[in-house]
Prior knowledge:
The chain is mainly alpha-helical. About 90% of the residues lie in helices and about 0% in strands. It is built from three helices and no strands. The N and C termini lie far apart (about 35 Å).
Amino acid sequence: MPINAMQSPIKGVIRYLGSQLRLMHLDKGFIQMQHEEINDSCHHFMQLRLGQSKQMSLILLHFTLASEISQALNTS
């Protein structure tokens, strides 16, 4: 499956997680803990959904998720 076909569900998950982080106005220590939990959840999600393209998708997801967390920290 090409990466483009997977971006829509991934972006939906990332947007949801990012919006939750911004809404909660979490302190940095708690966000770091949540980031680790989110990574575990996303890894599980990728294993279920993406099969062979998982590694590339995880790389894309981690970069985008890091960006969302950075934005959440800057807006809180």
